[in-house]
Design a protein that fits this description.
720 residues; alpha/beta; Rossmann fold; GMP Synthetase, Chain A, domain 3; five-stranded parallel beta sheet; five-stranded mixed beta sheet
Length: 720
């Protein structure tokens, strides 16, 4: 009895202490909030704040910053001791200041000139996010050449096309894996001469007649500085706004990738406008982990980094990105929707394993956040009781959760590239994360539309970015004109003329319209993907796919229905989420294929689709897009198999042709179908996998008086 009383007293004492701690946290957060509101009222808007700093430039001053090398010299002069690049290597963060960055990059450029790089040459850069890789992009431009970043996970055949198409004489590769890919295809590259590598591990026994260590190249450049510095300065000064800054290849969703030529004007003016819009400055930091060949990474990690002099941080590896994110705590963060989907999945999985008390607190406070969180974030009126409850939730749920995700210091966050589910978007914003959407393209130097602070909607992509004009053609296709609009498609004047007219208007290939209520742009889908069903109703696959991918169990899906009487779906399960569920339910499995075909898994996916059908039925314009039947694929859709692009965009045409037998089985009423599929393994070998897939029917919601696509009325599309 005495022991029980002591235990009860101890628990009561612990409870009281916990309540006191929460009260102290709330008091601190209230005082911080009051101080923040006072400052917010006193200071100008974020973009104005940015202009007060280094972002305001006269036309003459801006002309002096007409290239990345000029920006590098400006930063080394004004912020010599501020961090420019960080990298985690062997568990320790290494830092380059702007002064060190200028020295390292200058030595690279001198070494490239000594090796034979000429003005106008194309130099391919392949590797993961590292300071030396980012530095090489600027060093190439400093030497008067054009950098061409490539996706590091591209197979040799994909690299061969790009290297041959641009006529690259030189290649800068990150490690042995990338070197091996280039050496494998070197006989097919008539212009290839030299390969420069960064990581020397495994390179000792290679033939070095055409191979060069990057650090050795820097040393040779430094040694030759007396004789080459004048030539280097001349090449830098020859740079103008019209000089090509970089050439980036499209993802190749519909065909062969195209080389998008972007000038210094495209990159620098776009970076300048974006920095001013969000008030970015030299004290901000960014985690750089996305492929260097993607235009978003180039704009954020190079363009904006150099213009605002902010610091970029490179993770140790792709496997450590999330842990490195928590360590860095960036103030500026960009991620495609898939990253946020993965974050939400991890949260859901963790809560499933949490105690009942934690689960209850999580559900209660997240429900409250979903109701008032975004209003608080936008500075809208909220009752005192709701605000107090939110502060308690912030102390016990939101802040610890943001800290665990590495998002606790994010001042500005963006997502783009693909559609993000509104539910996922609202989840992060409800916790106080200033997550926004933007709409852009490689051809636009990213920015077409952006969402201003306080005007953020889950179903729009914002208003035209600074200096950008947007119009909607009669066909519904979105067109834009901006300083960031690309110069041309390399060696493809026909494609250039099809995409960009003489007046500078660029066709996006996306269908959309401006919301009459708020003036924000809404993107329906790819114009070519929006179609009609046999009954005349509208078919927009992304609308349904985005809702399905909100569920953690669904990794990817492809919806069919164009020219058909009903919609059908392919589904990829998320192995981590479904695997966790299987373990908790004592379901044994040995492979993705076995788990994907398990009856209980199919039942769960069926339930998700039925829930989505209820939501889809509520949209009069798209109620015909309810999924009637589905199957779970026996393999994950993969870029190596050509089913997705390197930026994780679905290649619908490829999938329809490759899995035509499965599509036919969905529509002919079959209950199962045997299939055999060729796959590509990580080492490049090819093989075949076969499986018998079960096809399940799904309940749909009857819709009375379905509105056909031609019928008027207010449209309610969701963002691509």
């Amino acid at each position: 009895m005495k022991h029980a009383k002591k235990q009860g007293a101890a628990q009561k004492k612990l409870l009281i202490e916990t309540i006191c701690k929460i009260s102290e946290i709330i008091k601190k957060r209230l005082s911080r909030r009051v101080l923040f509101e006072q400052k917010r009222r006193q200071k100008p808007q974020p973009c104005s704040q940015g202009r007060i700093n280094i972002l305001t430039q006269t036309s003459q001053a801006l002309d002096d910053l007409r290239s990345l090398p000029h920006l590098l010299r400006r930063n080394a002069s004004r912020f010599p001791d501020r961090p420019a690049l960080r990298e985690k290597e062997l568990g320790i963060w290494q830092t380059w200041t702007w002064a060190q960055a200028e020295r390292e990059i200058t030595n690279m450029a001198l070494g490239l000139i000594e090796l034979g790089v000429k003005e106008g040459d194309y130099v391919a850069v392949i590797g993961r996010n590292r300071p030396y890789i980012y530095g090489s992009l600027v060093a190439v431009q400093m030497a008067g050449a054009v950098p061409v970043p490539l996706y590091q996970d591209a197979v040799a055949e994909e690299m061969s096309y790009v290297l041959e198409h641009c006529g690259a004489r030189f290649v800068i590769a990150g490690d042995q894996e990338q070197v091996d890919k280039v050496l494998e295809i070197q006989d097919d590259l008539k212009d290839f001469e030299h390969l420069i590598y960064l990581d020397a591990r495994g390179m000792r026994k290679y033939d070095h007649s055409r191979l060069h260590d990057l650090r050795a190249l820097q040393q040779s450049g430094l040694a030759a500085a007396d004789g080459l510095q004048k030539e280097l300065d001349s090449r830098v000064e020859a740079q103008t706004f019209e000089t090509t800054c970089v050439m980036l290849y499209t993802s190749g969703t519909t065909g062969k990738p195209k080389g998008v030529v972007l000038s210094n004007r495209n990159i620098i003016i776009s970076a300048k406008n974006a920095c001013e819009f969000d008030g970015l400055k030299e004290t901000d930091s960014l985690l750089s982990y996305l492929p260097i060949a993607w235009v978003g990474d180039f704009i954020f990690s190079v363009g904006q980094s150099y213009f605002a002099a902010l610091c970029i941080n490179c993770p140790e590896s792709q496997e450590t990105v999330l842990s490195d994110l928590r360590e860095i705590g960036p103030s500026y963060y960009f991620a495609p929707p898939r990253v946020f989907e993965s974050m939400l999945t991890s949260v859901v999985l963790r809560m499933q394993d949490a105690s009942r008390i934690k689960q209850g607190l999580y559900r209660y406070f997240m429900a409250h956040a979903s109701r008032v969180g975004q209003d608080i974030l936008d500075g809208n009126a909220v009752s005192a009781l709701d605000r107090l409850t939110y502060l308690i939730g912030d102390a016990v749920i939101y802040s610890p959760l943001k800290n665990a995700l590495g998002l606790s210091r994010v001042r500005v966050g963006y997502t783009a590239g693909e559609a993000i589910g509104p539910e996922i978007f609202d989840f992060f914003r409800s916790m106080g994360i200033n997550l926004k959407q933007l709409y852009g393209q490689t051809e636009a130097s990213v920015f077409v539309t952006v969402q201003p602070d306080g005007q953020v909607y889950s179903d729009t992509v914002g208003v035209p970015a600074p200096d950008v004009e947007v119009k909607i053609a009669e066909s519904g296709e979105v067109f834009y004109r901006s300083p960031g609009a690309f110069v041309e498609y390399y060696k493809s004047p026909e494609s250039t003329a099809e995409t960009k007219d003489p007046e500078g208007w660029v066709a996006t290939g996306d269908a959309g319209f401006f919301d009459p209520d708020n003036g924000h742009l809404r993107i329906i889908d790819r114009a070519k993907d929006v179609a009609k069903m046999t009954d005349g109703s509208m078919f927009a696959p992304k609308y349904v796919e985005n809702k399905l991918k909100f569920y953690p169990n669904i990794l990817e899906c492809v919806v069919f229905g164009a020219g058909r009487d009903r919609c059908m779906a392919f589904v990829n399960i998320d192995l981590a989420a479904v695997g966790n569920w299987a373990e908790r339910n004592n379901i044994a499995y040995s492979s993705y294929q076995e788990l994907a075909g398990h009856p209980e898994v199919l039942r769960v996916i069926e339930g998700h689709i039925e829930e989505v059908n209820v939501k889809v039925a509520q949209d009069a314009m798209l109620s015909g897009c309810q999924v009637h039947r589905f199957l779970v694929l026996h393999k994950e859709l993969d870029a190596d198999d050509g089913e997705m692009t390197r930026t994780r965009k679905v290649r619908r045409k490829v999938i329809s042709e490759k899995f035509s037998d499965l599509v036919e089985a969905l529509y002919n009423g079959a209950q199962d179908v045997f299939t055999e599929t060729e796959v590509t393994y990580e080492d490049g070998r090819k093989g075949k996998i076969s499986a018998t897939l079960e096809i399940r029917d799904v309940k749909t919601v009857a819709v009375s008086g379905r509105i056909a696509a031609e019928q008027g009325g207010q449209r309610r599309w969701l963002v691509r």
